[in-house]
Write the structure tokens for this entry.
Amino acid sequence: MPLTTPATALAADWIALAVILLACAALVSTVTTSAWTPVGRMWLRTGSVAVLFAALTAQVAASGWLTGGDGPTLDWLMAHRSATWTSIAKFITNAGGPAGTIAIGVVIAAFLTWRTRRVVPGAAVLGTVAIAAVANTVMKSLIGRERPPVLTHLVDETDLSYPSGHVAGTTALVGVVLLVYIAGRPSRVRAGIAAAAAVLVVAVVALTRLYLGVHWLSDTLGGALLGTTVVLAVAAVVTSAPALDIRARARRPGASQALAPAG
């Protein structure tokens, strides 16, 4: 008797849906409910996104309904390729790769250390990117998902597919830079613009990986969720330990340290 029957597969799909809805409800409550403390709010956000990542991972491992858009997305993008878009996609994917992410992270960390005369902001950037990279490598080994067929590839890729390392690394990098920026308490408008820019960067990198035919749609979603989980975990730690001042602004003599963003 097979370990997975249609009935058990259907039950798993419903369970995954219920878990996703509960996690989304928890995330919404961190915005709409004022009862949460800043520390509790950040840890709840971290846990909720981690649960979303776990639910997607379980669906990918079981080829569940959340992977239903993988094939059609790949087919559509393959049908809309052009030489110009291919050149642009290759340039972006090279910049957003592991080497590019690390290089950009080192430059940003060095700048923050020089500007603030403190190690913490730069260490937060490098640590977040490093943790995301390790977590991504571990998850690839655990899930063991193969990439789309080689005939769809426009660049050479030989490792496993889920989650996308490019997207996870980019999410971790732009996410922690956003965290450092928001810790300086900019205006709501500036913070909103910065957040929108961060989302746009991640979306563009994810799109290039799909366009180049080296990832499934669920791979990129998994990479974004994994990177976000790491960034939120760092934010939760910073919120829990006010002494960890990650503000990007230079420290003034006698200035008190600021708490991490509460909202």
